[in-house]
Amino acid sequence: MASNIMRPAFAYTVVYVKDVAKSVEFYSRAFGHNVRRLDESHRWGELESGQTTIAFTPRHQHETDDLTGKVQATRSDRERTPIEVCFCYPDVDAAFKRAVENGAVAVSEPEDKEWGQKVGYVRDIDGIVVRIGSHVK
């Protein structure tokens, strides 16, 4: 039997953005999350999202660019980042509408998928694809 030391909890998803304060405020308004923290330097922000934290930090930081490499941004709407943020809602249509009304760019309207989930896609203020969906039936 594996020990608890080898059973990590998923703690954070870090999203690299142009402006941390604007992104935290956008996600709070567009997707309904409460702001947990926005540090005074505006270089780190967190949203309440259940057991896992959604965190935001600037794309470029001298502490990490030289250590782990620079974050690559998309160059057009025909490209997407190698991460997709997904949120599940009981009313996908209402959540999609709220996101768009608060500045998200509609990519595809919500539709029923063959795997039993209703899904719509938007882009956030940094062009990151956000999936708005239901739980799989």
From TrEMBL:
Residues 9-135 form the VOC domain. InterPro entries: Glyas_Bleomycin-R_OHBP_Dase, Glyas_Fos-R_dOase_dom, GlyoxalaseI/FosfomycinResist, VOC_core. Pfam families: Glyoxalase (PF00903). This is VOC domain-containing protein. It comes from Brassica carinata.
